[in-house]
Amino acid sequence: MAKIRFEEVKSGYERIMSDLKNKIYKPVYLLMGEEAYYIDLISGYIQDNVLGEAEKTFNQTVLYGKDVSAKAVIEVARRFPMMSSYQVVVVREAQHIKDIDKLEIYVGSPLKSTLLVVCYKGKTVDKRTSFYKQTVKIGEVFESAAPYEERLPDWIISYLSSKQRTIDTVAAKILADYLGADLTKIVNELDKLAVVVPQNSKITTDHIERNIGISKDYNTFELCNAITAGDVLKANRIIMHFERNAEKNSLPAIVSQLFSQFCKIFLLHMLKAKYKNAAIPSTEIQGVMGINSYFLRSYEAAARRFSSTKSAEVIALLREFDMRSKGWNNASTGYGDLLRELVYKIMH
């Protein structure tokens, strides 16, 4: 089965939230998937807004998967509300319920007065089960996939726009490289920036350095640029900074960013071979390489320095160093020496 695209995740979230705000409720919400951010937003909204404060005392229950069985969840869900039109039952960490498939007993005949919210994080429910199939028919199934790393800068720009702040593409890329694909972690840091940067203002790399601690000059984005530009001096300065701050710049994370960079350079060579001397359509660049057109010029410059053959060699090298950074075939080489060796071999 094809993996759900992040664009579908966002549109699915917006549709569910629109229904909730219009008080269109479903008896069962199965919120599942590897990315917790939108799951938390949906379940949080239901907890905060379906019932009034007075109603919540008797009609809102939060259960935890480690502490309950499917039978216990069903018993709570089958209660009738007291002095309210609805009761809300939220099951957090539902992935720990060993017999979760048995919820099909309730889902086959749910109470219209109960909103059962099942938060199943980190993975998805088996879609072959009756529980899943019945929920699709009578309730709301939301699957949350993590965004691909190349989509993160655009997501950051969009999120800050909703907060009436702007940020340039480079600064967004630096944040994405440093924070990774955990949207909850990203939002926490962006909200910090929104506190110190006034509305209708631009967030800069200076703001990021002062408030999040990501150096505007010494980060993985700048290291990748220095390597692909052939700037040996700058690359070694960044390595020295990383060595002094190894706890903030893990070697596997650096290798991962370099791997992504060189895969895109290799893909650009493939596109150039496909289109020969013709211009590559922007839709192809976005679809195949997954990059913002803003960065195309830097990738073209990198492709002139690193041939398709050399790019393939670097990708193989990065696989080797990823294993070495995790201890394989590496008994004694330290962080700094390993990173220097890797960068030297890439650039020579």
List keywords for this structure.
elongated, Rossmann fold, 7 strands, 5-stranded parallel beta sheet, Helicase, Ruva Protein, domain 3, two-stranded parallel ribbon, 348 residues, 17 helices, alpha/beta, Zinc Finger, Delta Prime, domain 3, 3 domains
Summarize the structure.
With 348 residues, the chain is α/β, with parallel strands linked by helices. It has helices spanning 6-21, 37-49, 53-59, 70-77, 104-107, 130-138, 152-162, 169-179, 183-196, 205-211, 220-229, 232-244, 251-275, 282-289, 296-305, 308-325, 335-347; strands spanning 28-33, 60-64, 87-92, 114-121, 140-144, 165-167, 201-203.
CATH class category name of the largest domain: Alpha Beta
Distance between the termini: 43 Å
* Count of distinct strands: 7
Query: Which bin fits the share of residues in helices?
Result: 55-70%
Order of helices and strands: HEHHEHEHEHEHEHHEHHHHHHHH
How are the strands of the biggest sheet laid out side by side?
Answer: 2-3-4-1-5
Q: What is the assembly state of the chains in this entry?
A: single chain
- Overall SS class: alpha/beta
Note the overall shape.
elongated
The profile of the biggest β sheet is: 5 strands, parallel
Indicate the proportion of strand residues. Answer: 5-15%
Briefly note the CATH topology name of the largest domain: Rossmann fold
Low-confidence runs (pLDDT<50, min 5 residues)? none
Radius of gyration using CA atoms only:
24 Å
Q: Please, how many domains? A: 3
Mean pLDDT: 91
Q: Quick one: CATH superfamily of the largest domain?
A: P-loop containing nucleotide triphosphate hydrolases
